[in-house]
Amino acid sequence: MIALETLAKQIETNLNLNSKGIKFAVFADMGKFKKAVSTRTEHEHYTNGVLKVIDSAVIPTQGMTVATQSVMLEVVAELTFGKDQEEIIRNHRAVLDSYFTEFRVELISDDDKSYSVNMTSSIVSTGEPQIRPEIGSSMTWYVRIDYGFIENGLNSLNCTFTLDGVTVPYSSATITNRPQIEEIPYSNTAGVGKNVVTARTRGFDFQVPAQASEGLGQILLLAVLDDDTVKHTLTVKFGTVTRTYTVVFGQTNVVLQGVQNAGHNISLIEAAVDIGDNDDGTA
Questions:
Q1: 29, 125, 186, 260: which has the highest count of C-beta atoms within 10 A?
Q2: pTM score, two decimals?
Q3: Which residues are 71's β-sheet partners?
């Protein structure tokens, strides 16, 4: 499990990349919060944050760490150091929304271990302006953050697909390698049956939000409405491994329901090149 102090420092570092000139100091418990406020200088003001654990769980696995953790971040901004209060509130809201509305995957090292960490967060909620001890007039914001940790893990966002050069914005993807087995299994001298794989086929299944624009949205829509027998090029990049396949559409549909956004269920099947062509498609 990654220490809470490490997560607090990661949040602080990323928030301090903002273009508004706001300096954040994020700590892992309430005691540190009061100390940070009392030691600020006259010319250097910090927006303080306190990170608290809400829930955590470790998933039992063999030889590696897989865990989840939920935390709450409370951010307190001082409103009394000679600037327009509305501008202070507006700038803080812009910085927090910019960082916490994005789904993030980061590599974090802690205790000599490397973790793939995915982070999702709630919408940043606003508290009330109050007069607080040691701070004075101030505004608070709250955000819940859910983490998933995998030691030396490879996250789904590390895998990208492009169809005819256009990125596939999938919400779910499944790659399948299906062996074709010889009907009569091979038996060795000891009478132990062994299967013989005569061929393999690859399939790629996606769930994708429907797009009204040209490009990929048009390709997927026409695959449902027309008899699409065109061969397409699918490029798969999984971490440091890249593969390119010639594919055709299999069973594909578009789901429409009420006033909800439409979505595609796509099946792509690896296709043979034309008879007489080489594997690279040249004659």
A1: 29
A2: 0.65
A3: 53, 145
